[in-house]
Structure formats: C-alpha cells, structure tokens
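Could someone model inosinic acid with this protein?
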Amino acid sequence: MKRIIFATNNAHKLDEVRAILGNTIELTTLKEAGITEDIPENEPTIEGNALAKARYVWERTGCDCFADDTGLEVDALGGAPGVHSARYATDGHDFAANRTKLLREMEGKEHRTARFRTVVALIEGGKESCFEGVVEGEITTSEMGEGGFGYDPLFRPEGYEQTFAELAPEEKNAISHRGRAVAKLAAYLLADK
Ligand code: IMP
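Reply:
Sure, complex below.
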C-alpha cells in the first residue's frame, strides 16, 4: 500500500482523512515522521499555507507528504475569517472562542451565506500539486450539534437542515470541503502516472 505523511496535528482531520481514503493509502502522522513542533502558517492565502506546510515536511523528511489548509469565508463579513480562520478570536486554535466571535460578528445579519474552502498541497517525488474542495452553506444563529470540530456547529451546508456537527461523520465527509479535496488527491495518487 502507498504510504504518505499527512502534515497535521489535528486528530479530527486525521480521522476524517483516514475515513475518506479507507485502505487505499496508508497515512503516516507528523509525530511518526519525527516532527513534533507546530508548523508555521503565516502565508496570506490558503493555498500558500498548505504548500508551506507540505514543503516544511518534505524538506525535513524527503518523504511524499501532503498538508491541508482550510478557511471559512463568510460573505456578510467580506470573506472573513478566511485564511485567518484558526486565529480569528485569539492567537491560539481556540475553537469555542472562534465560534463565539463569529456569532457576535453575525448578530442581526440576514444574509448568512458562507463557504468552507480547503486546499490540499501534495509533494510526491518532489513534484508539487494542489487540490481544492469547496462546500457552500450558511452560518446558523446559534450552535447546533456535538460532532465534528471547529466551526462545524455553526455551518449548515446547502440543501441540509442540519449543521456539519449534527451530520454523521460519513455524511459530512461525503460533501465537505476536505472530503472533496481529499477525493481529488486520492484519484491523483492512485492514477497511473
Ligand atoms: P486549518 O488551518 O486548516 O487547521 O483550519 C483553519 C480553521 O478552520 C481552524 O480553526 C479549524 O478549526 C477550522 N476548520 C478547518 N476545517 C474545518 C471543518 O471541517 N469544520 C469546521 N471547522 C474547520
């Protein structure tokens, strides 16, 4: 089976991507690859951050690897938090504080459309490729659901009554930004090249 490093320390993302890839590709974690520090994410775009994370791992291991970066783009907020989604409320990855800030910023707003955008950056044999996944939806007026992570309790995908946090993991993966980007990654990795 093909082995590849997934450059994340987020256990939720690892679970999601493992479930999407099934037994087609074996994922090595950063810890297993000997990288224990946080990888810097200081680029001005989602694609830039995904590529920077993948390059960081490639330069230190020389192994095939991929990284993802995600932004939540809210139309009524001019596309914010966007590339700053992880550090929207504080300097750390405080999911609850980020949701509280988003609800506050959206108070009284009727137009609530938004999208999650993920870019997966792959480095395979030194060659870089990027895959994008997008899901449209809207921001709810309160938190709903216990599943998922991050902004999931506040994001209702288009055509659904439930938020991502209320959907079963396989339902979220089938339509999510990350699910769509990782499906493209898998098709590329498994194709004859
Ligand atoms: P990251 O930089 O790709 O880890 O993600 C940026 C921010 O978006 C973090 O605060 C995550 O919690 C959030 N995020 C990433 N993916 C998801 C998701 O699938 N659902 C909800 N929030 C997410």
